[in-house]
Write a structure and sequence with these properties.
The structure holds 2 protein chains of 2 kinds. Chain A is an alpha/beta fold. Helices cover about 35% and strands about 20% of the residues of chain A. Chain A has helices at about 10-20, 25-30, 45-50, 70-90; strands at about 1-5, 30, 55-60, 95-100, 100-105. Chain A has a 5-stranded mixed beta sheet, sandwiched between helices. The mean pLDDT of chain A is about 90. The radius of gyration of chain B is 15 Å and the shape is globular. The longest helix of chain B is centred in the C-terminal third of the chain and has 20 residues, at about 130-150. Chain B is built from 5 helices and 7 strands; from the N terminus they run βαβαββααβαββ. Chain B has one domain: 3-Layer(aba) Sandwich (Rossmann fold), CATH 3.40.50. The chains are: A alpha/beta, B alpha/beta. The interface of A and B includes residues 9, 10, 61 and 100 of A.
């Protein structure tokens, strides 16, 4: 699984489609995005395991602001950050996109090819 | 040469950008985009301007429409910052956000080296009101366009440069 993270509107989806030669349809089929909005309840390890079935998992960094006053928002942000750590640990490749530019944090840069990255069954 | 420097508030991005420009030979120009509101801000800006003059910078203020800014050819320019400029063009009555990138292009055609400081404000979630979200979308778009155009893109973290594109000379 390739895990792509980075700030809001940084061009994460655009980058991965360009790198893998994917159309928007292929992205929808093989990737999942905005996983920072998923972990409202339940076991984060199990969630991370199930997300690993996707070829590509995309999360927006949301932990950079002031700690939210609202306890629900605080918990949501906390779990989003922890989920990203769990995904990065499981991923073969981790890429952070900033200003449309990819930076490799783990593994090696992906290229276009006939084979999907490991995973790739979709959710 | 075109350098884009991005960083969060108090990340050290301004100091890094200024050091970068100081390492270049030739006349130095500081393009200030922040409108001073109030006496305190005016005093602070005057202090910064005097300190920069000692380091060889001439300062020009330009809050909107950089396409009309006449600058000396061959200067090493430092523009600070894109977050302010974008907000000015988006929210001032005389603003037009479509002029931000053409304004930079206009300056690039005249400068020897151009260094632009921009703001990392995109990691605090997206639970914002409409106008703020619109601002974030516009600034992110401008950042991506300029990053694609730049020779060097540096994200400053704790005062240290994280090179995203290009090579330090």
């Amino acid at each position: 699984m390739i895990f792509v993270t980075g700030p809001l509107f940084a061009g994460k989806e655009e980058y991965i489609c360009g790198a893998l030669g994917w159309s928007p349809e292929e992205f929808r089929k093989h990737a999942v995005r905005d996983v920072q909005e998923l972990p409202l309840s339940g076991d984060l390890d199990e969630l991370a395991d199930s997300l690993c079935r996707c070829a590509v998992v995309v999360a927006t960094e949301v932990g950079g602001g002031v700690v939210p006053v609202d306890p629900v928002e605080r918990e949501r942000r906390e779990r989003a950050g922890r989920l990203s750590c769990l995904l990065a640990r499981r991923a073969e490749t981790v890429i952070r996109v900033q200003c449309g530019l990819p930076q490799l944090l783990k593994g090696k840069f992906p290229g276009p090819g006939p084979e999907l990255p490991q995973g790739g069954e979709g959710l | 040469m075109f350098t884009l420097v991005i960083g969060g508030s108090a990340s050290g991005k301004s100091e890094f950008a200024e050091r970068h420009v100081l390492s270049l030979d030739g006349p130095r120009l500081y393009i200030a985009t922040m409108e001073p509101f109030g006496v305190e801000a005016q005093a602070r800006i005057a202090r910064h301007r005097a300190a920069r003059r000692d380091r060889g910078f001439e300062t020009v203020d330009s809050y909107v429409n950089l396409t009309d800014l006449e600058i000396q050819k061959g200067a090493n320019a430092l523009l600070e910052d894109l977050g302010n400029l974008t907000a000015n063009e988006l929210f001032r009555p005389d603003g037009d956000v479509g002029r931000v990138v053409p304004g930079i292009e206009h300056l690039l055609a005249r400068c020897r080296h151009m260094t632009v400081v921009t703001n990392e404000v995109f990691s605090g979630g997206k639970d914002y009101e409409g106008e703020t979200l619109r601002y974030l979308r516009e600034l992110a778009q401008i950042n991506r366009v300029l990053a694609a155009r730049a020779d060097l893109v540096v994200e400053v973290v704790c005062g240290l440069p994280n090179l995203l594109k290009g090579e330090f000379l």
